[in-house]
Write a sequence for this structure.
């Protein structure tokens, strides 16, 4: 990469610049505008003397999404400014070469590598202790019954494809004549429409949004639901997953990560506050506020996975679900406690929620999900 | 060299302001870089922060055409790239019936460029002067469309089965906007420069109001912006964008309001339909709330 002709940049500056994309990737950037070559091109265009212009230009080049955009300034400072604010800045000097190549977290699971990782993450260095004391996500990749879940979710995804929503597309046999298509075909027969073209309803899956309760009372089920979410995300493209306990956190990106180790790593960071209390109403209100406008549209089905034990106000839960119901197509609640014999949803939270639900179904394990699948599909229709 | 760039940046910022767009320096840097590297620029941000406007002023500044493709759910390649003019083709077939030429030649005639309807994407790559191509709200289109788009953005060529491959005669400047209703693919993001546009802060919005509505008294403009900034801090389903601020300014002028204070709360209430656009949000603005906001201005 350094072989690129860089007459105006001295070697040290060039080395520093080429290391920057790798540093960003090590900090969870998806790889935005590419690697060393465009960075050097940009720097050559822009020059190095004015750090603001360089910063803005690299920001445009290397960011790919809003959260990266917001974190960029800090990382730019950490990498380019004289080191005095970050812990053990000499590490960065040493890492310089390594970072421009593979990212250090490659040796996944290795304690040494994990420690190195923290070194280059200025923001997250302090949270090491907390992460260790939080729940272990290793279970997420356990082979045992992960395969079953994948198989079931594949089935679910396949059945979901049969849920038809209104959208027309050209088809061999259909309900309505496709006029441009018919004329297009008639060109071959000298303008006489011998073969008719048709339109039919296209099958469009509903979008799924999963809201997974990970509070303490759900501890024994939340891994199961996370695995479910991961398998479902692998199967369908239009799935959005969120965790909530006292607040909501988006985890779609972490779950989509093709590298299971890195997915775990990212979930680790999200896990702060994991297995604490529950404020379902507040969490859903936060979801409405921050995510619903973007993600929830008229084809969206919301799946809430929670036991309904809420320490917040039932009125807030009811209100926030009512708001969400107006945006979404369906709301389905999977409650693991429903499996227990003699369970009736009398908890205040459940009582507040039920009027707004399209379906309340049991879902403590694979067998019960399997049993509930037909009615789930029916509810999403 | 770098000071040259900084000067260039400042000059662009001035030019943008001249045509009515108040831009952050980081956006100007991205616009310059986009022209240097020939990459598309992906703009993200909430509705109403001025994403679409960027493409318009870019076209104005470069004295070139703006070609706009508005994306929507179900947008297909035909609507975005090209379509044959079937009616004219049919007519031509009838006229050619008694023509002596061979079938192959007739066919070539019928599928020639004369019968091709250019849709925005094809038009953008077949202009003489590089135009600005605005692909608006790309997140509304399907993922399949994103794939078409990627092909265009990487090679700047389109293949039309009956006609062959059309190469770009000029590379358009591509501006893509997204409201983030759907997660865009990493492949698309990788090809683009990125800029996140936030709601403007007080100073910037004031500059915008002064620029777009020069007849407003300085004091009223300050109050308007302070009020709108206060509204944005509230928890609303739909926060007012810059367009709403300007609409509201016009509404206030129309109602003859020259100062925002507690006494005028009643009349401000009448004008709020220009600022607040959902029923739930409207319910969050009883008279007391308006009076409180007005008092803080």
């Amino acid at each position: 990469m350094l072989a690129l002709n860089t007459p105006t940049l001295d070697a040290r500056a060039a080395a520093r610049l080429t290391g920057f994309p790798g540093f960003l990737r090590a900090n969870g950037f998806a790889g935005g505008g590419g690697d060393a070559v465009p960075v050097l091109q940009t720097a050559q265009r822009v020059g190095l003397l004015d750090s603001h212009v360089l910063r803005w230009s690299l920001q445009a080049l290397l960011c790919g999404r809003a959260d990266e955009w917001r974190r960029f300034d800090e990382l730019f400072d950490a990498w380019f400014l004289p080191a005095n604010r970050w812990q053990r800045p000499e590490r960065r000097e040493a890492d310089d070469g390594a970072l421009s190549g593979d990212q250090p977290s490659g040796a996944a699971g290795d304690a040494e590598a994990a420690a190195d990782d923290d070194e280059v993450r200025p923001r997250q260095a302090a949270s090491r202790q907390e992460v260790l004391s939080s729940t272990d996500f290793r279970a997420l990749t356990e082979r045992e019954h992960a395969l079953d879940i994948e198989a079931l979710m594949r089935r679910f995804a396949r059945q979901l494809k049969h849920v038809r929503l209104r959208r027309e597309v050209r088809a061999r046999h259909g309900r309505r004549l496709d006029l441009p298509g018919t004329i297009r075909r008639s060109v071959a027969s000298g303008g006489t429409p011998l073969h008719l073209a048709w339109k039919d309803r296209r099958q469009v899956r509903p979008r799924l949004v999963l809201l997974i309760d990970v509070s303490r009372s759900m501890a024994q089920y939340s891994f199961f639901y996370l695995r479910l979410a991961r398998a479902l995300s692998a199967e369908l493209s239009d799935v959005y997953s969120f965790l909530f306990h006292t607040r909501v956190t988006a985890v779609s990106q972490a779950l989509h990560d093709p590298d299971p180790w890195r997915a775990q790593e990212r979930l680790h960071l999200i896990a702060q506050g994991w297995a604490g209390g529950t404020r379902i109403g507040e969490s859903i209100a936060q979801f409405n506020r921050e995510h619903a406008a973007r993600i929830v549209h008229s084809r969206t089905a919301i799946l809430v996975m929670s036991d309904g034990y809420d320490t917040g106000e039932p009125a807030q839960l009811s209100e926030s679900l009512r708001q969400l119901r107006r945006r979404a197509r369906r709301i389905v609640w999977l409650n693991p406690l429903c499996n227990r014999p003699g369970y009736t949803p009398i908890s205040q939270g459940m009582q507040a929620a039920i009027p707004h639900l399209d379906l309340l179904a049991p879902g403590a394990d694979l067998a019960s999900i399997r049993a509930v699948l037909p009615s789930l599909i029916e509810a999403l229709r | 060299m770098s000071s040259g760039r900084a000067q260039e940046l400042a000059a662009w910022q001035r030019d943008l302001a001249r045509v009515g767009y108040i831009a952050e320096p980081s956006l100007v840097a991205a616009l310059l870089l986009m022209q240097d590297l020939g990459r598309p620029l992906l703009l993200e941000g909430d509705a109403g922060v001025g994403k679409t406007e960027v493409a318009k002023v870019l076209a104005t500044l470069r004295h070139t055409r703006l070609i706009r493709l508005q994306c929507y759910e179900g947008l297909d390649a035909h609507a975005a790239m090209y379509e044959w003019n079937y009616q004219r083709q049919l007519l031509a077939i009838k006229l050619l019936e008694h023509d002596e030429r061979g079938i192959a030649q007739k066919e070539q005639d019928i599928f020639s460029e004369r019968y091709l309807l250019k849709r925005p994407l094809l038009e953008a790559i077949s202009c003489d002067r590089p135009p600005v191509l605005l692909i608006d709200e790309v997140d509304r289109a399907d993922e399949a469309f994103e794939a078409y788009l990627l092909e265009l953005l990487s090679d700047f060529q389109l293949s039309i089965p009956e006609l062959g491959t059309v190469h770009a005669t000029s590379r358009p400047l591509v501006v893509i906007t997204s409201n983030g209703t759907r997660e865009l693919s990493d492949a698309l993001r990788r090809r683009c420069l990125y800029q996140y546009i936030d709601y403007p802060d007080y100073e910037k919005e004031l500059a915008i109001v002064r620029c777009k509505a020069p007849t407003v008294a300085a004091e009223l403009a300050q109050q308007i912006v302070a009020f709108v900034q206060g509204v944005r801090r509230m928890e609303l389903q739909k926060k007012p964008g810059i367009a709403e601020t300007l609409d509201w300014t016009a509404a206030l002028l129309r109602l003859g309001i020259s100062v925002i204070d507690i006494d005028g709360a009643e009349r401000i209430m009448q004008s709020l339909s220009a600022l607040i656009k959902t029923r739930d949000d409207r319910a969050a603005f009883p008279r007391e709330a308006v009076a409180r906001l007005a008092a803080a201005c």
In short: The beta strands of chain A are 168-171, 176-177, 198-201, 207-213, 239-244, 248-250, 300-305, 330-335, 359-362. Chain A touches chain B through 50 residues (CB under 8 Å). Chain A is about 50% helix and 10% strand.
